Amino acid sequence: MSGIILIIIFLFSFLFFKPLKKYFIIETAKEGRILFIHNYEPEMNFGVSYIHSVNKSKIIDYFFLGNNNAVYLSYSLFSSFGAGVSSYPDESQKPFSFEKDFIKYEEINRIIDDFIIFIGTEAEHTLLISSREIKLNKLAAPMTNIRIRAGKLSLVKILFNSTKWSRAL
User: Fold this and answer.
1) What is the pLDDT of residues 132-158, one digit of tens each?
2) Distance in angstroms (rounded) separating the CA atoms of residues 156 and 42
3) What is the DSSP letter of 123?
4) Taking a C-beta distance cutoff of 8 angstroms, is the pair 106, 78 a contact?
């Protein structure tokens, strides 16, 4: 009888503490406190929009999560060239196209080793994921660094270290 109880305790502990499922995660960069969790899909896409600090125009950067958990900058949309924004391309640069009110800088495919965003007071950072828009200053206070990543989480980490769940879970 005690052997069965030990097996049940072992199995429960394994399922509760072992990271089994991969998620799209937003967490505080310093403490690692989970702010947002969303189902992970291979090669999933998401965007981050913000107001540029110099020319005050909206920029939307689109990313995808590779199978290796890496974050890749896929393409950017912006409304004008200027300080801190890509300059007008020459023939040798990546393709630019025009989409509605935006200029699209395509085929960037740059790996972001550690994707950290500083939540500013005026930038209006917004996560675009699964047809939803989530204001990042609702997940973390302004002046906070957040990290976006993919990774496995245990049930205990999710239950005791997170604040917001995506409805897509």
Assistant:
1) 999 999 999 999 999 999 998 887 777
2) 24
3) S
4) no
